Amino acid sequence: MKHIILIGFMGSGKSTLGKKLSGEFELPFVDMDEYIERKEGRTISTIFAEDGEAYFRSLETEVLEELLGSDEKKIVSLGGGTPLRAENRELMKQGGYSIFLKVDPEEAYNRLKGDTHRPLLQVENPRERICDLLGIRNPVYEGAADYVLSEQKKSVDEIMTELIKIVRSNPI
Ligand code: S3P
Fold it and tell me: What's the DSSP call for residue 149?
């Protein structure tokens, strides 16, 4: 096992929890979206606007391969759409184990409303978009994950305690 991979919908706390986990286990942490933005020298929104979603998705696969292919053990948080490609799920399986941070639609909406940085949510009815996307994605996340951590009715501290337990019993 090389890497610990955090997956889940936008707003599920992948980056925040990944950073905390990184401090707890003294492992490097990489947020894939931030990594892509640094590599490209432009924001995700700009990449979508200038080159379209298909281009962004191919960048994701390229970067995933790079990050998970490296020998340096780390915690990686993926973009919300990354596990949707079969090719990416294969890379995930090879690269370590995945923890799905499962958020319910209403909570996701509360965390994401007013967000201007996620191109997929810049629509008239983001609540409906979130419900639709979650309906499609939750089964994919579940199928791709080695562990499912439901965030429902839990504080950040409670979620962290569960995450730490998973990582302690699965050292990399
Ligand atoms: C996306 C999620 C975003 C980012 C892009 C597309 C998605 O990442 O990769 O806006 O398809 O769900 P976060 O999950 O980190 O917000």
Answer: E
